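Anyone? Bumping this.
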Amino acid sequence: MYMKKESARPIISRRSRPAKTPLSRDVIVSSALEILDRDGLAGLSLRRVAAALDTGAASLYVYLTNLDELHALMLDEALATVQLPKSRRLSWRDRLKAFLLSYLHVLYNRRGLAQLALSTISSGPRTLLIWERLLGLLKEGDVEDAKAAWGVDLLTLYVTAIAAEKSNWRESGEGPGRVKDALLSASVEEFPLVVAFREALLSGDAEARLDWALDIIIDGIVGGRLPAASSAVPRPTQRRGTRSKP
Amino acid sequence: MYMKKESARPIISRRSRPAKTPLSRDVIVSSALEILDRDGLAGLSLRRVAAALDTGAASLYVYLTNLDELHALMLDEALATVQLPKSRRLSWRDRLKAFLLSYLHVLYNRRGLAQLALSTISSGPRTLLIWERLLGLLKEGDVEDAKAAWGVDLLTLYVTAIAAEKSNWRESGEGPGRVKDALLSASVEEFPLVVAFREALLSGDAEARLDWALDIIIDGIVGGRLPAASSAVPRPTQRRGTRSKP
DNA sequence: ACCTGAACACCGTTCAAGT
DNA sequence: ACCTGAACACCGTTCAAGT
């Protein structure tokens, strides 16, 4: 199952390649994305990328500081294909939803990418462009600045999470089957509500649920309260924060 | 840096342990959680768990089918400590938020657990209990069944995603610093809105943002539209679904 | 039935040596 | 400056052999 291909062959026959394919961040990233498509995140390794480029893993360290950096570069590159709908006939809201759906599909359609998106802090140019577009759409909807800013965070995080969850289901074999089994075998004594809600919990396809959730979140961003305070305001009584010093 | 500890010592001195510590799923899981606490997800391996239990990795396969299963067991076990606030003086809404915050803190406080939560499909008894509690709270708020069911999904996914994102920041060294840098160095020509929104994008601490987002989502679940249709209803025109057969 | 050592097929990263 | 082979310190999983 492990293609050892051209391992013990002294005749290398460089056929088409012009001498070697000069290494660069770009060729490394696109090579890595090809491997991701074929073998998923589990099949992606520096050694495999290097092998595809006909070199050793050590060579990549001239262009990358480590595997994490490659991940971030891959993610940002992949996000280049997220698309704003052209049709000007749609409302800002429908275009926002279409854009988020495009984002979702980009993450979901490429194996392992959604996983990567959640474990990688990306802030490359493609990521910035997505923020730019989202801010533009929310501004079209006359959302106040403070709400738009926080809304971008909320929307991207939610969509990323959905993509990752769906990806998991696909990658790990059988969809939400395990959850379904757990629901069906839950005891009424211990989990009366879960049992009572069985059908409702399992109802609806992924798209209907996503659409519902997006509507809720968008409505909330548009109509909800303003972010409580800018960073300079003293907080009211709060429950034991994450900050380290008072 | 790699504690080779008691590697080449013929005198093993079983001190306190009663003959050996008999292996079982439970001891394996709690041993694994200890390692997770100390060394994070990157430091967790079957070999290390086995070493802590004074045996070889192969021995664990009597109790586990693979590493993924251990992950799922660990997650479910850790979720046991999520707590419903006792104080009956709080509104259902405040108790819901406190419960979700407890969930968040359980995921966040244990290193690597949030990551695990997003890459693992958990459906053990502790997970079911969390659904049970959430359904109970939403019912107290007189949320319609269909909305409550989908709401559980939305709330847990969002909180898990937040925990994972914050965990990433902590685990990967410097918090949202990279994002901040990207924001500060973004060009006005390319990303005018991002630049204009700089301050708003960075404003507010994590708690304020979380609180804002939770309010939006809860409001949406309470007041938003009903899920469009139960699974049996024909869908209106939809954009190219994920389903495989028509 | 349970446990084990050894082996297999991999990893990321570093480093001294080459060009 | 860029590339490389070899080495280091790990992985998960399987398997034949032991008790």
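Late reply, but here is one note on the structure posted above: Chain B is about 60% helix and 0% strand.
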